[in-house]
Specification:
43% helix; Four Helix Bundle (Hemerythrin (Met), subunit A); 308 residues; globular; alpha/beta; single chain
Length: 308
């Protein structure tokens, strides 16, 4: 799959997930065949103003390639400045978030709120292209209010502005992450556009991937929650052989995190990851309880030694 001249390793992509797609997890998913990985969403204004935390969100490893950074914001001037920032140099693609449903983001006119203003959304895309000189993509939802799809209108606007691909998560902002994803919306976007369309939502196994392919007709497929605790899902869905040693994978994950963030932050990040690595196992409940009680990285390591 090709996005704006960037050749992806496969058409299975890792979605940006707040609190989970840290540099360590992206590195691991890339090693298991993710065609493209993406950072958690990064505030354009926060990046321009040097906000705390931006540096950590932007950390990446050489092996995590190709890679995208996801920016959010509704001010073209700040999007331009953020896209031009030297710290984004390691990234091949800039993705603009037009799907985040979180109240704080939405009420500020950012994330999924941009779907209601295609003209501004197009300006944001043009600013990102001008600032970065890189391929720019957009991640969107079906719309804001349930039963009122506006994804096609937005997708046409950002394509005209120069976007190289769009990702459709066909739930409405009102739904947040509940209910089934309606990939007939994704198909409508695919049929309207000339650029690649990526389907995101409810892909967790072969069966669901086949269903989404049939329903959406999309060019690529983005995996979000289906990859948590299961980074090997990319090789699995590609029909490739793979080895998965949870202890080794967790150790590598922690090693990468420790290379750029303090151990107390590593411990907090790994709490949720451990719960997902343990999901479906007989010891899952014990891991959840102990992870919730963990106060430092030594506590995390004791959990790993005892259960993985």
């Amino acid at each position: 799959m090709n996005i704006g001249g960037v050749q992806l390793k496969s058409n299975l992509l890792l979605a940006p997930i707040a609190g989970f797609t840290d540099a360590g997890f992206r590195h691991i998913c890339a090693s298991y065949g993710a065609g493209l990985t993406c950072t958690e969403l990064v505030s354009a204004k926060g990046l321009v103003y040097g906000g705390k935390g931006s540096e950590e969100l932007l950390f990446t490893t050489p092996e995590t390639s190709p890679r995208a950074v996801q920016l959010f914001g509704n001010d073209p001037e700040f999007i331009f400045k953020a896209a031009a920032d030297e710290r984004l140099k390691p990234f091949d693609i800039i993705d603009i978030n037009m799907g985040c449903p979180v109240k704080k983001v939405f009420n500020n006119g950012e994330g999924s709120a941009l779907m209601a203003n295609p003209e501004l959304a197009a300006e944001v895309v043009r600013a990102a292209i001008e600032g970065s000189g890189k391929p720019v993509t957009v991640k969107m939802r079906a719309g804001i209010r349930q039963g009122e799809p506006i994804a096609v209108e937005l997708a046409l606007a950002v394509q005209k502005a120069g976007a190289c691909a769009v990702t459709v998560h066909p739930r409405y902002r009102e739904q947040f992450y509940v209910g089934a994803a309606d990939h007939s919306v994704t198909r409508a976007v695919k049929e309207a556009l000339d650029i690649p369309v990526i389907a995101n939502g409810d892909i967790t196994d072969f069966e669901s991937l086949s269903r989404v392919k049939e329903e959406s007709g999309a060019d690529g497929f983005m995996i979000a929650r289906g990859a948590l605790g299961r980074p090997y899902i990319f090789r699995q869905l590609l029909g490739q052989e793979y080895d998965f040693d949870a202890r080794k994978v967790i150790a590598e994950h922690i090693r990468i995190l420790r290379s750029y963030t303090p151990d107390r932050v590593v411990a907090n990040l790994m709490k949720n990851h451990l719960c997902h690595y343990a999901k479906g196992k007989s010891f899952a409940k014990e891991v959840r309880v102990l992870a919730g009680q963990a106060k430092c990285l030594d506590d995390i390591m004791r959990i790993v030694d005892a259960f993985f």
